[in-house]
């Protein structure tokens, strides 16, 4: 199988970028997309050229670092799939494949297909954790949690922080990411003491970096974990409540 890659190349954050056309002959259709890039990079290095820089780590659809725009789609043409789990059998012999980094002001390009997603870290640092005293670890069944609540919290916790939601959104909004990180804590009993402080801090930090949500729904479509935009509604509800509750707490103090 032979394909042609049209790859975004950029030496650094301040350097001008360009598309390079690179041939990729001898691709096995059982290869993952990243294995195909490995094959291309081996040839480029052997020819004395710079390898294509791209992020990767676990290659098991868990870590979220393998983030690419493939033919204009975040993570490529297969829904609910991270780039590292996308296989070349989804493409045909002779295809031209356009590969780009995430396109968002909050994700500046580091080099080629690699972007800086530390804006996500700032959101999590603002409140994506539990500091309230909860005592020692208890047996799993001592805290009764309704199964629908536990299931919903697990669905939110599936977020791998890849940034596909931001890349797919026409406003470069990060509501789905933030809602998932807020939701999996706010739904659980352990997250209740800091619930309203958490959501206010995380949403306010998010708005320093990203655009606003206008309910296009592209984030849910692009998410490799298929996280529902229902979590955005839950976050907005908690955020509105936080503005009243936190104001009252401030007034009392």
List the helices and strands and how they pair.
Layout (H helix, E strand, L loop, with lengths): L2 E7 L8 E7 L8 H14 L22 E2 L2 E2 L21 E5 L8 E3 L2 E2 L2 H10 L19 H11 L6 H5 L6 H12 L8 H15 L8 H5 L7 H23 L1
Parallel strand pairs: 1-5
Antiparallel strand pairs: 1-2, 3-4, 3-5, 6-7
Helix pairs in contact: 2-5, 2-6, 3-5, 5-6, 5-8, 6-8
Summarize the structure.
By secondary structure, this protein is an alpha+beta fold. It has helices at 33-46, 118-127, 147-157, 164-168, 175-186, 195-209, 218-222, 230-252; strands at 3-9, 18-24, 69-70, 73-74, 96-100, 109-111, 114-115.
How are the strands ordered across the major sheet?
2-1-5-3-4
Percent of residues in helices: 25-40%
Summarize the biggest pleated sheet.
5 strands, mixed
The CATH topology label of the largest domain is: Fumarate Reductase Iron-sulfur Protein, Chain B, domain 2
Unreliable residue runs: none
Radius of gyration: 21 Å
What is the number of independent domains?
2
Structural class by helix and strand composition: alpha+beta
SSE string, helices as H and strands as E: EEHEEEEEHHHHHHH
Q: Report the span from N to C terminus.
A: 69 Å
CATH homologous superfamily descriptor of the largest domain: Alpha-helical ferredoxin
Average pLDDT number: 94
Outline: elongated
User: Helix tally?
Assistant: 8
Structural overview:
It is a single chain. This protein has 253 residues and is α+β, with helices and mostly antiparallel strands. It has two domains: 3-111, Beta-grasp domain (Ubiquitin-like (UB roll)), CATH 3.10.20; 117-252, Alpha-helical ferredoxin (Fumarate Reductase Iron-sulfur Protein, Chain B, domain 2). The protein has eight helices and seven strands; from the N terminus they run E-E-H-E-E-E-E-E-H-H-H-H-H-H-H. The strands form two sheets. A five-stranded mixed beta sheet has the order 2-1-5-3-4. The chain is elongated. The N and C termini lie far apart (69 Å).
């Amino acid at each position: 199988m032979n394909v042609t890659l049209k790859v975004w190349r950029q030496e650094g954050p301040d350097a001008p970028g360009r598309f390079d056309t690179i041939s990729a002959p001898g691709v096995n259709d059982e290869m993952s997309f990243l294995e195909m890039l490995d094959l291309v990079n081996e040839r480029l290095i052997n020819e004395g050229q710079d390898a294509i820089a791209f992020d990767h780590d676990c290659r098991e659809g868990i870590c979220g670092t393998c983030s690419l725009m493939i033919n204009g789609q975040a993570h490529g043409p297969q829904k609910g799939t991270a780039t590292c789990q996308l296989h070349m059998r989804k493409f045909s012999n002779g295809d031209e494949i356009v590969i780009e980094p995430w396109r968002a002001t909050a994700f500046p390009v580091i080099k080629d297909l690699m972007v800086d997603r530390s804006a996500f870290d700032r959101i999590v640092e603002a409140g994506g954790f539990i500091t309230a005293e909860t005592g020692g670890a208890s047996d799993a069944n001592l805290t009764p949690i309704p199964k629908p609540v536990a299931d919903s919290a697990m669905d939110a916790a599936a977020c791998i922080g890849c940034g596909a939601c931001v890349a797919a959104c026409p406003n470069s909004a990060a509501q789905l990411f933030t809602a998932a990180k807020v939701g999996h804590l706010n739904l659980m009993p352990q997250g209740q003491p800091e619930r309203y402080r958490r959501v206010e801090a995380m949403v306010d930090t998010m708005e320093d970096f990203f655009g606003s949500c206008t309910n296009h729904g592209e984030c849910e479509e692009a998410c490799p974990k298929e996280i529902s935009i229902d979590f955005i509604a839950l976050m907005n509800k908690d955020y509105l409540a936080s503005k009243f509750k936190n104001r009252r707490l401030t007034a009392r103090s």
